Amino acid sequence: MLIKQLIQILQHEYSKGIPSSYLVNDALKYYYESYNKDEIKKNKILLSQFNMNTYNKLVVHTDKNFSLNMILWGKNSYTRTCSHTSNRDLMVMEGSIVATKYEDSILGVNCLKLESGDVYNLKGGSFHNLINAESSKSLTLHVYDNYDYFRNLNLLMG
Q1: Nearest-angstrom CA–CA distance, 31 and 36
Q2: Residue 124 has what pLDDT?
Q3: b/e map of 135-156 (b: 16 or more CB within 10 Å)?
Q4: CB 140 within 8 A of CB 90
Q5: Which of 20, 87, 119, 128 has the fewest CB atoms within 10 Å, i.e. is most exposed?
Q6: Which domains does the chain have, with CATH numbers?
Q7: Cα separation of 102 and 87, whole Å?
Q8: Paired sense of beta strands 66-73 and 138-145, if any
Q9: In Å, how far are 8, 51, 158 from 112, measured between CA atoms?
Q10: Strand, helix or coil at 12?
Q11: Which helix or strand (DSSP H or E) is residue 41 part of?
């Protein structure tokens, strides 16, 4: 399966409104079971051209409903603790990622090590951070709901 086909599946689901995380997870898992390894390898080569002391993001697709991003994580790279207004779903393609959700900006709620093929959901408004748990690179695929972003942009633009 090509990323283009995953995008078509997600576009179909988002055309009916914001889909549940279960539908997004199923689409990501379906993609993982039959993804095109050559296509992923080309994207990894592209992402490897940048600084690997951190993580590098490739926006594969974006529209008014969702964004699909591929992230290549360098050794020991991580995100700062942050929160987003929209839902986020991610799948580990290669390697492993430690995901931590926080009840507030100080107290950790749960910490989970995600392996290749695992899917993880972050509801809008939840504080979290992600860490590459590997001594080498890890690769993740992320689906971000864009509904709030474009709604807020339209409000700002009048």
Answers
A1: 9
A2: 80
A3: eebbbbbbbbbbbebeeeeeee
A4: yes
A5: 20
A6: 3-157 (2.60.120.10)
A7: 15
A8: antiparallel
A9: 30, 26, 42
A10: helix
A11: helix 37-47
For 116, the token pair is 């290749």
List, as one string, the DSSP characters of 94-141. ESEEEEEEESSSSSEEEEEEEETT-EEEE-TT-EEEEEE-SSS-EEEE
Model confidence over 70-114: pLDDT tens digits?
999 998 899 988 887 788 899 999 999 999 888 655 665 788 999
Cβ neighbourhood burial of 61 (10 Å; 0-12, 13-18, 19+): middle
Q: Which residues, 6+ apart, have CB-to-CB distance to 82 below 8 Å? A: 127, 128, 129
Residues of the chain with pLDDT under 50: 150-158
